[in-house]
Amino acid sequence: MLRFACMGLSLSCAALTACPAAAQDEDAGTWALSGGFDLLELRGTKGDDLFFWDGTFSYGNIRDQFMLVTNGGGALRGQIDEVQMRLFYGRSLGNTTMLLGVRKDFRPHPRDTHAAIGAQGTVGTRLNWEGYAFLSDDGDLTGETQIIYQLPLSRRFYLEPRIAIGWSAQAIGQESVKPGLTEGEGSLRLRYRLTQKATFYTAIVHERLLGSTRRLARSGGESVGSTMAVIGFGFNL
Predict the structure, then answer these.
(1) Which of 19, 36, 79, 158 has the greatest count of CB atoms below 10 A from its CB?
(2) Please, are residues 24 and 64 in contact by the beta-carbon 8 Å criterion?
(3) Which ranges constitute the DSSP H helices of the chain?
(4) Among 4-8, 107-111, 194-198, where is mean pLDDT lowest?
(5) Which pLDDT tens digit goes with each residue over 203-235?
């Protein structure tokens, strides 16, 4: 399941020392807290139903931000299978924000820590994109990219298609991953705007393994894809 937000925590600490000066920059605006959970959802499958969350919180202004990303999920009647957190410092340049930070996997590999770089941005008012690269403490280089589009249908309803792709620069034996494109996810959400800061949605999500990773899983008799019906809720601060 794709998870969509460091050269060390010392970088974040160094950036923190710059906060007062940035806060006083009238051109950049005042510092404020923003964010929320874009996805809080239940996914119906042939086996156990799944729950999933994806949230982003940031503190900053239009130029500088500190960003915390959390995502994860698991079986509805079981334990949480995956938990990941990312901490970024972001610098905005026009419609693009450059990100530098650290990623920590708490489950299923609680010892995994990654240096992370990324970028996110907008094209017009409806298209959002983001891309990340991660370097693990074992030297494994992986990454992911996601594109999100919002198509208004009425004052309260809008469609939200998403496409996400993951990749790896090398084989990772313990995760049964081969080099190249490793997994993809396509989804279509129909959102209803409850308020300006809250939405309810229903969706179809299809995820599948790709490339050599797909062939490896198939040779081992494992599932290589699934399609799920989804209901969920999202909100902003």
Answers:
(1) 158
(2) no
(3) 9-16, 19-23, 211-219
(4) 4-8
(5) 999 999 999 999 999 999 999 999 999 999 999
How far lies 101's CA from each of 8, 30, 104, in Å? 7, 23, 10
> Do strands 225-236 and 96-107 pair parallel, antiparallel, or not at all (unpaired)?
unpaired
Structure tokens at 135: 């370097």
Phi then psi for residue 197, to 5 deg, are -115, 5
What's the token pair of residue 97?
């924000």
For 41, the token pair is: 């959802």
Burial 113-124 (b: 16+ CB within 10 A, else e): bbbbbbbbbeee
Largest pairwise CA distance in the chain: 60
Burial label for 12, CB within 10 Å (0-12, 13-18, 19+), is middle
Peptide bond into 110 cis (omega under 30): no
